[in-house]
Design the sequence.
């Protein structure tokens, strides 16, 4: 029995070393040949590595650090990049078809010409991402990003994403409503009213009673503010009077948008 336990302990102690050795072998293969299809590269450190044109199809890159790496033209289709860092990386022309980008850090990455087909970016970090194509994603995806920026209080960035969502889907009533709220915060009441009125018309057409109720409430608030413009401009915080007046409506807005 003692001999069996000793053998079992020895076997278990070797297993992690074998896995680590395989990881190192795959890493060396990648750096030597730039060909590492379906390789295990989880948790590897490749900061500022030159991997332009690399074949990483189906690779396991979970938790890998590829910050500021040059991946220009690389093939990362169907790779698992869960929790990986591509912060500031050059991803121009990269093929990310079907890649898993759950909690992937893409902040300040350059993605000009990248292929994001069948790729879900809703849980990725994309602050400051450069070169993202409006045609690469759906209106719903841009709306989701806008809501995320809205929650953080980055209203200019949220506004930019709402604009894109509306360009892609001119009948997205929720985007008009959300954009109108931001415009009203900055005391741009006339164009905010236009957004709320547009949302009202679309919600009416869609028989969306909850959305219509919200649009009507914001129309009333906007009209009251236009008729009685007593509050001064509130710099980055927008119109204090409008924000205070809308506070009672916000819980319904958050629920409607899924905040």
Sequence:
């Amino acid at each position: 029995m003692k001999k069996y336990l000793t053998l079992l302990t020895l076997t278990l102690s070797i297993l992690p070393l074998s896995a680590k050795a395989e990881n190192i072998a795959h890493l060396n293969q990648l750096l030597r040949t730039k060909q590492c299809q379906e390789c295990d590269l989880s948790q590897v450190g490749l900061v500022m590595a030159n991997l332009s044109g690399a074949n990483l199809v189906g690779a396991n890159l979970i938790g890998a650090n590829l910050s500021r790496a040059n991946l220009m033209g690389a093939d990362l289709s169907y790779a698992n990049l869960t929790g990986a860092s591509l912060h500031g990386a050059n991803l121009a022309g990269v093929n990310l078809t079907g890649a898993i980008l759950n909690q992937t850090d893409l902040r300040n990455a350059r993605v000009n010409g990248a292929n994001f087909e069948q790729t879900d970016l809703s849980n990725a970090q994309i602050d400051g991402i450069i070169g993202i194509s409006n045609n690469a994603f759906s209106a719903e995806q841009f709306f989701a990003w806008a809501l995320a920026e809205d929650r953080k209080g980055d209203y200019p960035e949220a506004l930019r994403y709402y604009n894109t969502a509306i360009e892609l889907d001119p009948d997205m009533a929720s985007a008009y409503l959300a954009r109108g709220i931001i415009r009203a915060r900055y005391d741009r009441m006339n164009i905010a009213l236009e957004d709320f009125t547009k949302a009202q018309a679309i919600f009416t057409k869609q028989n969306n009673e909850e959305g219509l109720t919200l649009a009507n409430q914001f129309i009333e608030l906007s009209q009251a503010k236009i008729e009685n413009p007593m509050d001064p401009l509130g710099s980055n915080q927008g119109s204090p009077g409008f924000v205070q007046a809308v506070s009672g409506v916000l819980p319904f807005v958050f629920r409607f948008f899924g905040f």
Notes: The chain has a mean pLDDT of 84.
